[in-house]
């Protein structure tokens, strides 16, 4: 497996200016970018709490720019490089506050990125507004964007829905700021003023990349993105200007043990290929001339050689004929029709799933694709050889 990217070794951090370093990464080679750039916070004075203790705010040299123009020039350069190295199937996340996120969003759109969402990271434990002159600033904004409008980017919709107790994942994420054990300290002081919580990166990496993908962070800071990428079995690369932060990140990464491959595989997104009713007829699983029944046995139709079915004087697909019977515009015929096997009704959908299982390379079925009857069918076990009998019964006729 290739373990380098341009002149860089993967799974590594390099010290230097990301704009210069990125020039050595080939075009369209990175799957996911997470960028937490300088905020350009414009803090002029030191900040004190009411009890006169100093607030450890972001007042670092790396965050100082002389003007908005200078900040914009810098942002255009690194975002332009990010777009160049991003694969068409990739996506980028950029995080910021009200100080910079609007400028970054405009630049991204001007460069051709296609914004997919903005996520509000709601901090459950924000730092108070000590002066009491403004609202408490309790969130940061993340822009999630594809390389261009028609990009086919990675998004594990179903995984995220399961992650969120079967509810669509929303764009407001409640996550505490980095604290406690997770917060890296040197001599009792925060090692990095803006260390992001691992939870935030976990959600991003799980939802918008695949195991073995290349995750890139141009501003690694304390190495949060890379640490989570390593844990989740992704390849990673990071750049950071400050030597001390590079050292801290390297030490942090050494302690991370990747999760087992089988545990990080995105199983629920492996959707079944579409099998038409005609395939079951073709294969003889449902025979030409056989009768299909509605569950209450009130309606019957005869299967034709071309996969159509005849109901009284009507001919059509399993879907259209069932819709007609139900007096509906549309209906899923797979859920409506049954065949007789050993004097029992068997759903044609169950027969289709048996076919999938035996003739396709499907290791897992997404539970949403199955009906309860199929799940409780003892023959539907993990042992692939155990379910052949269903097809050997000569259709029970
Ligand atoms: C907001 S912090 C990133 C924090 C990081 N996400 C974390 O969780 O620790 C921005 C980082 O970018 C670095 N930086 C600033 N300008 C840079 C540049 N031109 N190239 C590379 N790194 C840079 C700073 O030293 C700082 O550590």
Q: Could you please describe the fold and organization of this structure?
A:
- The protein is an alpha/beta fold and 397 residues long.
- The chain has two domains: 4-264, Rossmann fold (3-Layer(aba) Sandwich); 277-391, no CATH class.
- It is 29% helix and 21% strand.
- The chain contains 14 helices and 18 strands.
- The strands form four sheets. An eight-stranded mixed β-sheet has the order 3-12-11-4-5-7-6-8, sandwiched between helices. Strands 16-15-14-13-17-18 form a six-stranded antiparallel β-sheet.
- Strand 11, helix 6 and strand 12 form a beta-alpha-beta unit.
- Helix 2 (68-85) crosses helix 3 (101-111) and helix 5 packs across helix 6.
- The longest helix has 18 residues, at 68-85.
- The protein is elongated.
- The chain starts with a strand and ends in a 5-residue tail after the last helix.
- Bound molecules: S-adenosylmethionine.
- S-adenosylmethionine is lined by residues 17-19, 36, 38, 62, 192, 194-196, 219, 221-222, 224, 239-242, 245.
């Amino acid at each position: 497996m290739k373990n380098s990217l341009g002149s860089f070794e993967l799974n590594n951090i390099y010290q230097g200016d990301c704009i210069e370093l990125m020039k050595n990464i080939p075009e369209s080679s990175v799957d996911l970018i997470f960028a937490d750039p300088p905020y350009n916070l414009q803090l002029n004075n030191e900040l004190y709490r009411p009890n006169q203790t100093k607030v450890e705010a972001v007042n670092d040299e790396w965050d100082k720019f002389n003007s908005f123009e200078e900040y914009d020039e810098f942002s255009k350069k690194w975002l332009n490089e990010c777009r160049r190295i991003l694969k068409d199937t990739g996506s980028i996340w950029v995080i910021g506050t009200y100080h910079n996120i609007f400028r970054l969003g405009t630049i991204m759109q001007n460069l051709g990125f296609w914004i997919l969402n903005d996520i509000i990271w709601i901090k459950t434990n924000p730092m108070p507004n000590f002066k009491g002159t403004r609202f408490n600033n309790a969130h940061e904004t993340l822009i999630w964007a594809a390389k261009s409008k028609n990009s086919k980017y990675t998004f594990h919709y179903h995984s995220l829905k399961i992650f969120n107790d079967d509810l669509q994942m929303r764009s407001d994420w409640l996550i505490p700021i980095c604290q406690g054990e997770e917060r890296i300290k040197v001599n009792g002081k925060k090692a990095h003023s803006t260390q992001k919580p691992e939870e935030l990166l976990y959600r991003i990496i799980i939802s918008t990349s695949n195991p073995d993908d290349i995750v890139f962070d141009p501003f690694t800071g304390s190495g949060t993105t890379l640490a989570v990428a390593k844990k989740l079995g992704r390849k990673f690369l990071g750049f950071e200007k400050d030597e001390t932060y590079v050292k801290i990140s390297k030490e942090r990464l050494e302690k991370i043990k990747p999760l087992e491959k089988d545990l990080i595989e995105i199983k629920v997104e492996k959707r079944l290929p579409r099998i038409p009713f005609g395939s079951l007829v073709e294969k003889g699983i449902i025979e030409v001339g056989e009768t299909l029944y509605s569950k209450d046995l009130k309606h019957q139709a005869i299967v034709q050689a071309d996969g159509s079915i005849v109901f009284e004087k009507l001919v059509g697909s399993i879907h259209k004929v069932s819709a007609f019977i139900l007096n509906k515009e549309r209906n899923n015929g797979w859920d409506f029709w049954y065949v007789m096997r050993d004097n029992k009704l068997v759903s044609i959908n169950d027969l289709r799933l048996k076919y999938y299982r035996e003739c396709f390379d499907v290791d897992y079925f997404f539970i949403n694709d199955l009906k309860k009857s199929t799940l409780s069918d003892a023959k539907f076990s993990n042992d692939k050889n155990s379910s052949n009998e269903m097809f050997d019964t000569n259709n029970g006729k």
